[in-house]
Write a structure and sequence with these properties.
- By secondary structure, the protein is of the alpha+beta class.
- It folds into two domains: 47 residues, no CATH class; 52 residues.
- It has a three-stranded antiparallel β-sheet.
- A hairpin with an 8-residue loop joins strand 1 and strand 2.
- It starts with a strand and ends with a strand.
Length: 99
């Protein structure tokens, strides 16, 4: 579905996006040993780092889960471009895996 790598100007990582209906998988690998992605692979081996879930209200979901004891990964952040706006937030779920 999508690709980012040397051919698109990315010098640090290569990513492939696979799509099936509403499901998107982003598979990423580092291109150098100094990458945070490489550090994660060295520590844990191949695996899942981020599981993204689409929710109605990312700010409310963040506030609700952290008020119940979830550890914050990323406070709600608004990102805007010519196509619209998205709010992203995140919590740790287990180990270094985040939702």
């Amino acid at each position: 579905y999508a690709y980012k790598g040397l051919e698109t100007g990315s010098k640090d990582e290569v990513s492939y996006v696979l799509k099936q209906d509403k499901i998107r998988l982003v598979l990423t690998t580092p291109l150098n040993s100094k990458s945070p992605i490489n550090k994660h692979i060295v520590k844990h081996g191949d695996g899942v780092k981020v599981i993204a879930l689409w929710v109605e209200d990312a700010k409310k979901a963040y506030e609700e889960t952290t008020s119940r004891g979830a550890k914050s990964y990323m406070e709600p952040t608004v990102e805007t471009d010519e196509f619209g706006e998205v709010v992203r937030s995140g919590i740790y779920t287990y180990g270094e895996t985040v939702h």
